[in-house]
C-alpha cells in the first residue's frame, strides 16, 4: 500500500506572504493549560500564584472538576502582598508546606505565575529552587509563567514542558522522544503503532509519573505531537536533541507522514511500514469520507487561538475538500510548521497575531460557511447568522492519529449540519 502524497496543485504556502497583526486579541491565558495537564500528570500539583481573578478563572474553566480530587489551587496575593507590605516568600513557603503535608502523594509541584514577576513581586524561579531543595528528594518544585500578558492559552503547556527539560538527565542512548500532552488512550494507540514499526525506546514528555524518568542527549530524536511547543523544542535542542520535522498527526495523511518521518529516521522498511499502517489508514480514510460529505466544497475562516490552525486547515482542505479563506494563528513557528505549509494549498490569507476588529471585518466580508474561533467571538458571530466552531474544543477532544481522524472531521461537520437542520425547521 505504498503511497506518496502529492504536493498541492500550484505549490504550497511556504513562501506565501504573512499578514502580521499587532492589536487587540481574543484568547484565553496560559493558565488554562492546567485544565488538561493535571489529567496527564496525576502525581503533579499546580499552585497558581496570583489574584482572586485568576482563581475565579480557573474555577470557571475547570468547573467539571468539582466532583474530582483537585490537583490545582491558587495562592491568592492580597493587597498587602502586592504592595510589598508582607513577606510573600514566607507566605508562599507556608502555603507549600501545608499543601505537601496534606497531600503526600504530590511528586511534582509547579508554581505557576499568573502575572510577570514585576507585578506579583515574587521571583518564582528562585522560590522553586529553594523549595525544591527543602522538599527533596520526594518532591521536585518547578515553575513557569501562565500569564495572559505573555502567553496564549496553549503556550501554558509549552512553558510547563520547557520548565521540565533542564532537569532531564543526560544520555547517549538512541531514543525517540514524543513531545506533547495526549489523552492516555491516544498515547496508547500511538505507542502501539510505533511498537509495530519496531521503533524504540519511545519516551513521552510529559511523563505520566515522576518516576518515569528518561534522559536526553545528541542521539535523542524529538518529534512534536502538538504545534505550539516552540520553547520546549528549543530547550531540547539546547540539550543536543535532534528535531524530526513532520506534519502533525491530524487525519490520515498527517498521521501517515508523521509516522513515516519517524520510520525513515529509525530505518524501518517500507514493507513493514505498509504492513503496520495499511489497516488503520483505510479505517481513517473511510471515517473521514463519511464526515466530509457535509464539508466538501465549503469555506472555512480561522481566527488565531490555539496554534492548531495551520495543521487543521491542511487537514480540512486536503482530506475534507474545504476551501480555507483565512488562517490566523497566534504565532507562526517556521521550523515546526514548514512541513504543513508545504502541503497547504495556496490561496488563503495567512495572518499571525491579531487585531480582532480588523479580522472581524475581513471575516464578515468573506462570509465563510464555517468560522473557527474562540468562545468570546462564537456567540456574537452566531447571532449574526454565521456557523462557528469553538477552537478550544479542538484542544480538549481526542483528535490525533488514525482512530480519531473521523471524529476530527465530525467536529467541523456538526455545526454545518446543525445549521442546515435549523434552516429546514425554520422553513417548515
UniProtKB/TrEMBL annotation:
It is an enzyme of class 1 (oxidoreductase). Pfam families: Oxidored_nitro (PF00148). Binds 1 [4Fe-4S] cluster per heterodimer. The cluster is bound at the heterodimer interface by residues from both subunits. It catalyses: chlorophyllide a + oxidized 2[4Fe-4S]-[ferredoxin] + 2 ADP + 2 phosphate = protochlorophyllide a + reduced 2[4Fe-4S]-[ferredoxin] + 2 ATP + 2 H2O. Pathway: Porphyrin-containing compound metabolism; bacteriochlorophyll biosynthesis (light-independent). Residues 29-413 form the Nitrogenase/oxidoreductase component domain. GO terms for molecular function: oxidoreductase activity. SUPFAM superfamilies: Helical backbone' metal receptor. Protochlorophyllide reductase is composed of three subunits; BchL, BchN and BchB. Forms a heterotetramer of two BchB and two BchN subunits. Belongs to the BchN/ChlN family. Component of the dark-operative protochlorophyllide reductase (DPOR) that uses Mg-ATP and reduced ferredoxin to reduce ring D of protochlorophyllide (Pchlide) to form chlorophyllide a (Chlide). This reaction is light-independent. The NB-protein (BchN-BchB) is the catalytic component of the complex. This is Light-independent protochlorophyllide reductase subunit N.
Amino acid at each position: 500500500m505504498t503511497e506518496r502524497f502529492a504536493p498541492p496543485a500550484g505549490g504550497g504556502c511556504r513562501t506565501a506572504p504573512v499578514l502580521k497583526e499587532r492589536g487587540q486579541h481574543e484568547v484565553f491565558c496560559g493558565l488554562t493549560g492546567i485544565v488538561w495537564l493535571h489529567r496527564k500528570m496525576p502525581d503533579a500539583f499546580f499552585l497558581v500564584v496570583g489574584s482572586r481573578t485568576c482563581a475565579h478563572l480557573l474555577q470557571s474553566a475547570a468547573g467539571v472538576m468539582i466532583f474530582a480530587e483537585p490537583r490545582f489551587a491558587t495562592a491568592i496575593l492580597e493587597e498587602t502582598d502586592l504592595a510589598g507590605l508582607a513577606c510573600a516568600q514566607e507566605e508562599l513557603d507556608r502555603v507549600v508546606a501545608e499543601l505537601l503535608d496534606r497531600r503526600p502523594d504530590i511528586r511534582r509541584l509547579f508554581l505557576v505565575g499568573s502575572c510577570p514577576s514585576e507585578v506579583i513581586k515574587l521571583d518564582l524561579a528562585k522560590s522553586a529552587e529553594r523549595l525544591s531543595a527543602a522538599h527533596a528528594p520526594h518532591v521536585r518544585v518547578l515553575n513557569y509563567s501562565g500569564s495572559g500578558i505573555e502567553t496564549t492559552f496553549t503556550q501554558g503547556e509549552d512553558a510547563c514542558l520547557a520548565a521540565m527539560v533542564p532537569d532531564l538527565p543526560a544520555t547517549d542512548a538512541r531514543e525517540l522522544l514524543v513531545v506533547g500532552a495526549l489523552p492516555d488512550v491516544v498515547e496508547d494507540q500511538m505507542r502501539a503503532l510505533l511498537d509495530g514499526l519496531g521503533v524504540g525506546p519511545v519516551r513521552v514528555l510529559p511523563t505520566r509519573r515522576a518516576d518515569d524518568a528518561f534522559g536526553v542527549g545528541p542521539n535523542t530524536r524529538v518529534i512534536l505531537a502538538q504545534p505550539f511547543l516552540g520553547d520546549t523544542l528549543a530547550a531540547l535542542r539546547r540539550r543536543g536533541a535532534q528535531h524530526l520535522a513532520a506534519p502533525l498527526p491530524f487525519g490520515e495523511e498527517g498521521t501517515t507522514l508523521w509516522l513515516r518521518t519517524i520510520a525513515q529516521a529509525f530505518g524501518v522498511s517500507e514493507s513493514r511500514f505498509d504492513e503496520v499502517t495499511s489497516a488503520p489508514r483505510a479505517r481513517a480514510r473511510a471515517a473521514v469520507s463519511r464526515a466530509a460529505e457535509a464539508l466538501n466544497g465549503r469555506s472555512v475562516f480561522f481566527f488565531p487561538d490555539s496554534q492548531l490552525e495551520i495543521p487543521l486547515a491542511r487537514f480540512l482542505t486536503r482530506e475534507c475538500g474545504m476551501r480555507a479563506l483565512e488562517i490566523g494563528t497566534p504565532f507562526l513557528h517556521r521550523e515546526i510548521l514548514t512541513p504543513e505549509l508545504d502541503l497547504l494549498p495556496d490561496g488563503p490569507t495567512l495572518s499571525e497575531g491579531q487585531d480582532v476588529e480588523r479580522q472581524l471585518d475581513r471575516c464578515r466580508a468573506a462570509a465563510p460557511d464555517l468560522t473557527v474561533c474562540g468562545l468570546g467571538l462564537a456567540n456574537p458571530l452566531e447571532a449574526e447568522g454565521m456557523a462557528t466552531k469553538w477552537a478550544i474544543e479542538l484542544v480538549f477532544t481526542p483528535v490525533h492519529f488514525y482512530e480519531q481522524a473521523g471524529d476530527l472531521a465530525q467536529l467541523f461537520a456538526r455545526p454545518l449540519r446543525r445549521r442546515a437542520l435549523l434552516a429546514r425547521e425554520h422553513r417548515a
